[in-house]
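Structure, all two chains, one model.
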Amino acid sequence: MCNTCGCNITPGNRPLVMAEKPKNGVTTVSVLQNLLSQNNHQAEHNRSHFDAQKVLVINLMSSPGSGKTALLEATIKRLRDSLKIAVIEGDLETENDTKRIQAQGVPAYQITTGTACHLDAHLVHNALHHMALDDLDLLFIENVGNLVCPASFDLGHHRNVVLLSVTEGDDKPAKYPVMFRAADLMLISKTDLLPHLDDFSSPRAEQNLHNLANDAPVIEFSSKNGKGMDAWIAWLHAEIEQYRSLLLDKQTQRPKVQQDGQLLHAQPGKTKFYPLSNRAVHK
Amino acid sequence: MHELSLCEDLMDQVLTIAKAHHAEKVVRIIVRIGPLSGIEPLLLESAFSISRAGTLAEEAEFLTEVLPIRVLCNSCGIESEAVLNNLVCGGCGGYNTKLLSGDELILARLELENAD
C-alpha cells in the first residue's frame, strides 16, 4: 500500500473515501495517506538494499514458543554448506536466540525491542548497519513472538512465513486473521507432538487459513524428527529461484498480501489537496 | 500497543499538512480503518490523546470511521460483505476472493482552522 498516490482507494471504498463535503469556516483537506507511510517508506528503502545485494529476506512470525528458532537451527544445519545465511533476531529481552543461531556458525544480530511488541522497518534498518549483506543468499528476520502487531509492519522483506505449533490449536488462523492472511507459507510446527494431542487437525487449520482467502501452501513440520524438512527446503529453494529471476527483470518480490496495493500503485505524486478553504466565511 | 508507534507517523503527517496550510489549529482528524488492518480504533484514539499534547492538534477531535469488509469472488464474480475471519465468497462459498475493502489504514481528512 502506498502513502501519497491514493492507491489506498480501492474499488470498494472509493465511494466512501471520495464523499467529501466542505464545511463552512473550516478548511477541509483530503489526504488519503497511509498511516504507516513513514514505516512503509523505510521498508521500501530496506527492500532496495536487499535487492541490491540479491538477498532473499524472509519474515518469520508466530506466537512465542512455537519453534521459530528451532526451525532456523534445523534449516541452517541443512543449508549452511550450500547457501550463505544470516539472521536478525527480534526479542523483547535477552540474546539467547542470537547465541543459538551463532552456535550454528552463521552471523546473527539481535534487536532487543524492550517493551515494543513488534519489529518495524526502522529497527531492521538499524540492524542492517551492523551486518554485512554482501554475498548473502538468504536473510531470516525472526520477528518478536506475537500473532498481532508484527503483521501490520512491512520490514522490506520479500516473504512472510507464519508458524502455527500444534499445541496452539487449529483455530489460530480464525482467531488471528490479520496475521494469517499475510502468510505466504504456513508451517505447522511441532508435529512430533501430534500423537499426544486429540484436538488438533491439520486439515482444519488449513481450512481456517483458506477461509481468509489465502491459498498459501501449508507444510507440516517438526524440527525434532525432520518431518516436512524436505518440503520446507524445496519451498526455500523455489523462492530463491523465483526471486532471482524477478531481479533479472528488474523487479522485486513482495509478500502476497500487499500485491493488490502495488497493482493500484501509480507513480507517487504530490499529495493533492481539495477542496480548499473558505477563510472569509470563517472570519 | 503498536497503535502508539503508528500514532507517531500519524502526528507527523497531520502536523506537516497543517503547517503547509499555515493553519493555526487542527480542528478534526478523520482516519478510516478497515478491520483487517490490525489496528484497534479505540486504542489508536487513546494513543492519539497522548501524542497530540503540545501540538497544533492538541484540541483536535479524533474520528475513526470503520470501513466494511467486502470481497469480490474470482470464480463467480459476485461482490459480497465478509467478516474478519471468513473472507470466502458470500455467493458460491469459494475462497478464491479478492479483498475490495477492509484493510485500509488511511488518514482521510483534516479540518484546519485559519488555513490558507
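Chain A touches chain B through 53 residues (CB under 8 Å).
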